[in-house]
Structure formats: C-alpha cells, structure tokens
Amino acid sequence: xxxxxxxxxxxxxxxxxxxxxxxxxxxxxxxxxxxxxxxxxxxxxxxxxxxxxxxxxxxxxxxxxxxxxxxxxxxxxxxxxxxxxxxxxxxxxxxxxxxxxxxxxxxxxxxxxxxxxxxxxxxxxxxxxxxxxxxxxxxxxxxxxxxxxxx
Length: 151
Description:
Layout: H1 2-15, H2 22-33, H3 40-50, H4 56-68, E1 72-76, E2 82-86, E3 94-98, E4 104-107, H5 110-122, E5 133-136, H6 139-150
Parallel strand pairs: 3-5
Antiparallel strand pairs: 1-2, 3-4
C-alpha cells in the first residue's frame, strides 16, 4: 500500500510539473511510516530528527501537496488543532475524538455507511465523500474523572 501511495504522489507531482526532490521523498516516507494523526509541527519534528536540514516551511508546503494529491486528509479537532492522516481515494474510516485529551480512535461501520447513503438518496444527493467525527470523552479520561470525583 505504501508503494501505491508513493506512485499516486509521484504521478500527481509529475502532472503538476513538479520535479522530484529528495526532501519531498523523505517527508513522504516519514509521513507514510506513521499511523498517527499528525500536526504539521509533529511531522516536522519527526523529519527534523533524521534530516535536520529540512525546514518547517518545506514540511508544511509538502503536506499541503499531499492533501492536494488526495494522499492525505486534513481534519480539525474540536480544540482547533489541524491534523493530517494518509489515505487514498476509496479508503475510508470515521473518527471518535476525545474532547479532553484529543485521542483519536478510527472506526468503520457498514450500518452507518448504508444509512448515510439512504439519507443522501432520500434528499436527492449523490455522495462524493464525507467525514464523520464523533466527539466525546474517551474511557481513560472518563475513568480519570471518576477517580478525581471519588477522591
């Protein structure tokens, strides 16, 4: 799957008339090697750890290219923090987001997907995409809260 994602990005870059650069390749490799939802700063710190010559602005611009290429998805958390995850067209999942610690849990549910299709059809829409983010309090924060109340 990583090779496919690299092919997608390289094809996009070529179509845009962008030359291949070692810096972009490094950023892409590091981005694809993580399964986290990263902020630009977090990705930059990962890149900087092994390639200190790559600047934050380069990471930011490259991440935006990944989004434009359909290789990354941008999501804004309830606290306003923007995070990125890698994903190709056709790959889909939704998110549970803790409003206390910003923990993100990915999930897939066929029943929800079917219901969304039915709702769209009922209203005459043809779905071209969607993103679902359910916000609440994760089990760890919930149990920590219970401990604090009991103390």
